[in-house]
Structure formats: C-alpha cells, structure tokens
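in:
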C-alpha cells in the first residue's frame, strides 16, 4: 500500500478487529516497540483508544497522544477516520521523540533547558519551503567553519551542511521528523540539536522554516573588558533578534495549525481569528528582520563577501520562495526560464535578499490578476536583473524618495516597515552595484539591480 505523505507524517490502517493491517514508518517501528507485530492488534494504548472512540462515534477524531518507544518518549497528534468496512484510517499529524530521562524531574529539567536554548540559539538560519538555507547567523566560535561552508555553497538543503546522526533514511525527510534531531557539526566537538519552526499561510512550512541549533555544552566565553563593556547596549541583530524570533515563530506555527483546522473541527470565525494571529506574527517577524538588517548595513565597516554568482539562479529562487504569496493574490510570477544565466560579482545571499524584497513589493503593489516578471540583461561591464510589475506606478517625486529610510509612499495598514528598499539600496552599494527605479503613474514600476559582470 502506498500512503500519501501530506499532511501526515506517517499513516496506517486498522481493520474492523482492531489489527494494524498496514503502517508506514515510523508508526510501524512504534508498533514493534510497544510489543506489537505487523498485522497484529494495535499495540499503542492511546492510539488504540482514539481509534476505538472514532469507530464508536462514527466520526473523524483528532487527539494528542503519548507513547513509549524502546528508548524515547513519543508525543504527537493523531487523526482517526472510520471506514465503511468497520475499520479506521490512522494518520499522524505531529510526531516528536525525546530520549527517556532517569526520572520525571530529569525530563522536566531537560524540557526547560531545551526551551531556554531554543530562545537563545547559537546558530539560526532562514530556510525556504524545501528546507534550503537562504540566510544564516552564528554567534559561536566553533561554528565558524559551518558559516563558511554555507557562504561558499548557499541555497542548498541544511542537511548538506550538517549530519543528522539518528537518521538512516534517504533525504529529504519530513520536517517534523527532523525537528529535535541530534546533529554533528564539522569543526565543533559539542553535541548539537536542530529545531525547525514552520512558517506559512497555506500550511505549516509553506512559507519556509527557521532552523536553530542548540547545544547543552556551554563554551567558556572570552574575557571581557568590564570597563569598556559596561556602556555597551544589546545589539538587536546579534542578541535580541534571535531571542525574539523563537517565540514569534511558535505563535505563528500554533496559530497556523488552528487556522487550517489540523487539530480538529473549528468554527470558521475562530479560524479567521487564528489567521489574523498568523498575519500579525509574520508582520512582527518581518519588522524584527528589517530592523536587524538595518543595524547591520549601517554598522561601520559592514562588508560583503564577493564571489561569482548567477543572477538567474538567485531570481528563480526568489520567485520560488514568493510563489505562494503571488498565488494567494492571483498574480502570475514570471521568473527567468530554466537554463538562462547571468554571471555577476556579488554575494549570493545578499542578492537573494534584495530580490525577495523587490519581488515581494511588486506583489504587494500589483492588482490581482496581473503579472510580475523578472528579466536578466547585460550592458557592457554590468549585469542586471529587473523586477517589473503592473501596479499603479510612481510619480517623479515618489521615485526621488522611494529609497529613503521609512518611506512607505503613503501606504498604511499593510504591515510594511518602509525599510526594505532602503536596506536593499545600501546592500547594492556594498556589492559595488546600484539599485534604480523607472516608473510612471499608471504604468507600473521597474526596479533594476546592476552589479559588476563576471566573465
């Protein structure tokens, strides 16, 4: 039997006699851990209770469950759907395995330590919906080599840079099976745990993920000049932003679960409230990212790592990341066709950041049923990528101030900070390029990033 993978992590079929007739991994392994056999009675007590109630009521039921495996405690969310033959389809929506402690107190201490670590990660990264790394930040000395590898080969799955020590399955794994997985980091002797927080307004993860790495082993901090350090204030980008991202991402993830009714039936009005929470959380998260980026680009000595990059690949990745947002507004997003390249000198992740901002603005300013297209070009020693839309356009006066800090061109209530184009312009200059705009009222806008060509 072939099971669908979405939105379930694992699935099984229970027959009319309560036997687990078929199951995919890891449900099949849990059945064996609990003393059951393939085709035998469902051996997981709380899952058996959920199935029994669903069959008795004749209704689909969604419930949390707990189970004990060979060496771990499983917590998750199960959905049981009665079938016409008297059996049940069993689907697992959430699955988390945690090593068994020596006592309940140890387990609680470990839980508190884990949550504190997740609030103050030593490494964090933004991933797209396919779990490819878009941007990353590290504050640990023993993660320098990891940051260097990401910079040299951006845009790849995060599991290309880290080794998941408990998995023998082929990649990519469902993100819920990777959440809380132990990983090894080349260049670090410490033990690490990877945590994934989903983003998205269609389903969890549709808008990408935030990856954080934590270790219970604390490195000895370098000596600090108390006299010099006493007057320093916390840095938003380096210290506060990582701590703020974690709780906001959790609010978004839980609200998204409610909005999509993954946890069970819910009145539409309450699902709408949850949708408002998702929007508000993503708005707040975007503001934090903008302010952190602003702090970075305005820091004296801010530098980028210049290398040979493909503007075509950056444009296609940016369009892929924002495809769901465009689809929600019925906007056709037209990236450069596969195989079209334009080589330039720049830093891939910073160029991707600029293009995500330009394309995101184009989607926000464009009317529904319109188009946003991205084009590549080359003029002499300059390579360029242009983002064009069919929005209302900009007057000459607006074009003069569109790259100013906090400039929102009269827009209100849409969640924008007015920092995106300012930061993008500063990044373009740091990349030894320029960011320009051409527009006229009623004729849309065309933003163009020009960088030194790389032959």
């Amino acid at each position: 039997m072939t099971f669908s993978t979405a939105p379930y992590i694992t699935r099984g079929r229970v027959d009319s006699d309560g036997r687990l007739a078929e199951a995919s991994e890891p449900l099949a392994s849990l059945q064996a851990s609990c003393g059951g056999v393939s085709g035998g009675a469902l051996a997981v007590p709380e899952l058996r209770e959920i199935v029994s109630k669903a069959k008795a009521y004749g209704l689909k039921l969604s419930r949390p469950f707990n189970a004990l495996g060979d060496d771990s405690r499983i917590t998750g969310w199960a959905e049981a759907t009665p079938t016409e033959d008297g059996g049940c389809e069993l689907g697992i929506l959430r699955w988390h395995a945690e090593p068994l402690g020596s006592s309940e107190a140890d387990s609680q201490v470990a839980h508190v330590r884990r949550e504190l670590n997740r609030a103050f990660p030593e490494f964090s990264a933004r991933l797209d919906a396919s779990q490819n790394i878009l941007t990353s930040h590290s504050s640990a000395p023993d993660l320098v080599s990891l940051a260097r590898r990401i910079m040299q080969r951006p845009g790849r799955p995060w599991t290309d840079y880290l080794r998941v020590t408990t998995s023998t399955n082929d990649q990519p794994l469902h993100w819920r099976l990777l959440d809380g997985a132990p990983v090894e980091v080349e260049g670090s002797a410490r033990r690490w745990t990877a945590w994934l927080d989903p983003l998205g307004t269609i389903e969890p993860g549709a808008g990408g993920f935030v990856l954080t790495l934590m270790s219970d082993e604390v490195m000895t901090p370098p000596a600090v000049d108390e006299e010099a350090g006493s007057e320093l204030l916390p840095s938003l980008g380096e210290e506060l932003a990582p701590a703020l991202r974690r709780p906001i991402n959790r609010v978004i993830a839980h609200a998204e679960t409610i909005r999509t009714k993954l946890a069970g039936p819910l009145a539409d009005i309450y699902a709408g409230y949850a949708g408002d929470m998702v929007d508000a959380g993503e708005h707040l998260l975007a503001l934090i990212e903008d302010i952190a980026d602003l702090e970075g680009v305005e820091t004296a000595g801010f530098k980028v790592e210049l290398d040979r990059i493909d503007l075509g690949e950056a444009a296609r990745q940016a369009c892929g990341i924002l495809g769901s947002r465009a689809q929600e507004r019925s906007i056709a997003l037209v990236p450069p066709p596969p195989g079209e390249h334009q080589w330039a000198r720049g830093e891939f992740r910073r160029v991707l950041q600029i293009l995500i901002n330009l394309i995101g603005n184009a989607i926000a300013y464009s009317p529904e049923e319109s188009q946003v297209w991205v084009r590549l070009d080359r003029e002499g020693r300059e390579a360029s990528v242009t983002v064009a839309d069919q929005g209302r356009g900009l007057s000459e006066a607006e074009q003069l101030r569109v790259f100013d800090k906090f400039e929102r061109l009269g827009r209100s209530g849409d969640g924008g900070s007015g920092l995106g184009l300012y930061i993008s312009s500063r990044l373009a200059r740091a990349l030894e390029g320029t960011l320009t705009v051409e527009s006229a009222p009623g004729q849309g806008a065309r933003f163009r990033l020009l960088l030194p060509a790389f032959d």
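note: The two ends are 53 Å apart (CA to CA).
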